[in-house]
Design brief:
heterodimer, A: about 375 residues, B: about 220 residues, 7 strands, globular
Chain lengths: ~375, ~220
Amino acid sequence: MPPKLTQPVKRTRYFPGKRTSRSPSPSSSSDSESGPQGEDEQRTVKTEDVTELISEIGESASEAENSDEERDKQVSVRRQALGGTKPVVQSLKEVNLNERFKEETAIVESEYEESEEEHESVDESESESDVESESEEENKVLLRPVFVPRNKRTTKEAKPQFAYDTTADDEARKEKKKEETLAMIEQQIRAEAAAHAAASLHEDNIIANAEDIDDNDDVDPLAERAAWKLRELKRIKRERDELEQRERELQEIEMRRNMDDNERLKEDLARVRQQQEEKIKNHGKMGFMQKYYHKGAFYQDMDILNRTNYNAEALEDDIRDKTALPKIMQVRGDQFGKRGRSKWTHLLNEDTSQNTDSPWFRKDHGSKRTQEKLGGLHDAYPSKRKK
Amino acid sequence: METGPERGITLERGLVKGPEIHSQNPARLIEKIIRERILDSPYWKEQCFGLTAATLCDRAVELTYIGGQFGQQRPTPFLCLAFKAIQLQPEKEIILEYLAAEDFKYLRALAAFYIRLTFPAADIYKLLEPLLADYHRLKLRSMNGFRLIHIDEFADMLLTEERVCDIALPRLPKRIVLEDMEELEPRESALGSELSNSEGDSDDTNEVERNNGINSKEGH
């Protein structure tokens, strides 16, 4: 244990304009009857005392073990060296650390206030205050805190005993308290777990919940049966329709196999024409130079799958009927008036096949053979190529 | 191919050791995303640990709705139990017993779902078509909330649709195909006796005759 060299040094604070030095304390060995620590005046550590202390402590330490009693002895030795006569235990009893702290802070504050108020030091008042504070300090017992082992402490004895406290034994009381807290914690945890379980179950709706949907079957069995009948009939109808369609397909396959080429062709053309009509009916006819505008599928729902007519979509400020415009303005987009505009307008306009009397497209004897050899499907002269 | 369950416990959880169904590990009947959600769900972790066929039955009896996912893509307890059944792979007789439980419609629904996922095609038709005559009510929970359906509607969905309860069902050949292959008889509706007497739909008059035609065996 390192020797404790310093005597309790009263820390004085520096306040500007205030005398901080105090009258030097009498030597440590001088009498001080107020207590083992003596005055709180600033003590100067004297080297002789220090060496004395060290030697004493060293001796005592080397002789005996470091038991508590020995420590006490050392403490008392030190105390005596400092001028105290009272035993440790007694002197500690007198110490109330809270009080001491309050006193100290009060002193400090008072000093500070005084320094503020009376900045230009008035010697008289200062000396007065000094004297006052000094006297207060004299009355105060300032002990250097020393470690006292647990079984030597007396503060517990100082605790007031309550009348209703029947348990005499500290240990029993501790145990009881421990049990109580454990029981409380357990109860709390159980409550939490139950609440959590209930909440999760309720969320999963394992336990019956008040929903609008009632899956109770006993309400109006007749209506239930009627509804079921309806559903069953619809199912049967659906199955029947599927069967019929399948039959129809098979039939058509049969018929087609038996047909001639000519008949097949006629049927195909009829079919094509029908498809186009249907398309126009569903999609609507595109206007003259109407812009095909699709909003894109990203920001839309699945509802767009149900729509068949995309030709109806148009921008708000589009001119719907461009035929009303002069010919020069019948152009796409922002092409009107631009220098890069080409002379050619659109396919139908530049198409020379239908409107002119070109020999390529006339239906006469001369072009018959040409037409026959052409690719594609045309009704004028069907191709005689062997398939 | 790596061995299924040993491959990586973090990559493929919940795989089953046992015979394959539809030529894949039974757990793969349910897609990976939904499988992961099931395995992470609180219901699975709390209730579905260490279940047997018997205790599965107990849990199924406590169900109050069927469904796939709801809310923030949370799997329903119905789905968790279905996955547990797939993991357990109870015997055929047990499943048939569950299907025949008249008192517990959600247990029946669970058995029907399991049958649709795992049994061969002819058996599916044979076992699920009697359910088309059962019109008990069921609650169906989906992302849009609760909905009321009936057992026969649910069975119809299982037989005709491709995705029920957010699970992609295995491929089921059409009934006609199986009839052609002589594995099935044409369907006799529970309404069979009443159909010939009823007005039917208001369209053509051939219908009644056609109904009778359907009920008798048709070949092609």
